[in-house]
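hey can u check if this looks right to u? its 340 residues, i copy pasted from the old doc so theres a chance i mangled smth
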Amino acid sequence: MRILVYGAGAVGGFIGGMLTAAGADATLVARGAQHDAMKRRGLILEGKQSGRPDPIPVRVCRPGEEKPPYDFVIVGLKSHQLAGAARHMVSLLAKDGMILLGQNGLPYWYFEKLDHPLRGSRLASVDPDGVLAKTIPIDAVIGGAMNKPADLVEPGRIRLADQPTDRLVVGELDNRVTPRLQAIKALFDPAGWPVVVTDNIRAAKWRKLLSNAVFNPIGALTQSSALQIAQFEPTRGIARRMMDEVMAVATSVGVTPEMTPGQMMEDVLTRVGILSSTLQDVRFGRELELDAIVNAVIDVGRLTGVPTPCLEMASACAGLLNRRIVDDGVAFAPAAVRKS
């Protein structure tokens, strides 16, 4: 199987690196300093369990330098980056190839191949012009939920946190368990990242959203990790109300997430204090992934009549922060004002 990891940042780099180390035929697509560092010295994965003692000699190229066709394209881009790359990525797929979309949040395909009154509805927040739905062959899509805390600390070096919840969940959009899902599991098993084949990929997406839709925007606004938010009583209360709204929206489309808000809060209190990808983007001055993580939940709530006032408030504040980052070209990182 020829594999392409399109977007080898923190999580994409981790995926491409571990597959390469396990002997898979994988090519990583990256830009700028990330490409140059991996090309020059390989990829460094740091972590007590999932790290590697030596740099991994990955095969890396820039966008446009790929050598198609690829049987399996794993997309490491964030949701708001998909539209700009969709046509090119599709052109790299082999006939009957698969494309794994495991971005955070609710995907543009959420109401496709679904036995539900809202089947065919489009989430304007994640595919406002319908580009993704029109460009990516729906039968090629594999839904995914990627659970692996990863931090790109410098070009070519990724720091990994090992958690009991580390896993890749994969599923068909019509909830069938198919041979190609089993093939993905067989591909990843030697690499050491647990793969769960599910017959309800949407439930897996909501489970992760119960955390992301809450702690990512609050963390971006307060420069805090999920653990710090959960440990501080006032923000813990806000987070709990936001979780209740996420749960209500999920229930309105017939999904009961695998964890309750109370269980999720308890889980957060056991985590290491790693920063969310959204907070990392704030500190590096990158556009925030708010539409899929927060605004899509609000969209679904509007479709089903579920109010989401706390989510809307967090979205508005984080959205203004994003506007400052994008329009003003600035980053927001803490500066020490006293010696530790």
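The CA atoms of residues 242 and 311 lie 6 Å apart.
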